[in-house]
Amino acid sequence: MDRAEGVTLAPLPWTSPALLRATATMPEGLAQKVYAVRVRSVLGRDPAFGSTWQSLMKGAPTVETDYFNGEILMLGRLHGVETPTNEFLQHYAARLL
């Protein structure tokens, strides 16, 4: 879908759809530890958790993940491209709120 929109996405070497699915069923603290170990092994430093994670930790009523992934889902449908990872992320973020 990114190519259909003329966008080049940078890879995230510390995550994958399989890792996202695996951590989705873990308790939050364990999932955070898994990502911290993974980021350290790839980048050689501790992770800096992003604004979505910070919003969740503060108990915010919404997170931007819902908006971002919703936009990708909409564009995927517009271009006839399946976006299962983004659909998963949108539903997963909603479960965390």
Radius of gyration: 14 Å
**Structural class by SSE content:** mainly alpha
How many DSSP E strands? 0
What is the terminal separation in angstroms? 28 Å
Shape by Cα distribution: globular
Helical amount: 55-70%
Low-confidence stretches: none
Order of helices and strands: HHHHH
Average of the residue pLDDT scores: 81
Largest sheet: none
Helices, by number, come to 5
Strand content: under 5%
Question: What's a quick, concise take on this entry?
Answer:
By secondary structure, the chain is mainly α. The chain has helices spanning 17-24, 28-43, 51-58, 64-79, 84-96.
Task: Walk me through the topology.
Blueprint: H1 17-24, H2 28-43, H3 51-58, H4 64-79, H5 84-96
Helix pairs in contact: 1-5, 4-5
Q: Can you walk through the features of this model?
A:
- The protein has 97 residues and is mainly alpha-helical.
- It has five helices and no strands.
- The protein is globular and about 35 Å long.
- It starts with 16 loop residues before the first helix and ends with a helix.
- 6% of the residues are buried.
- The model has no long low-confidence stretch (mean pLDDT 81).
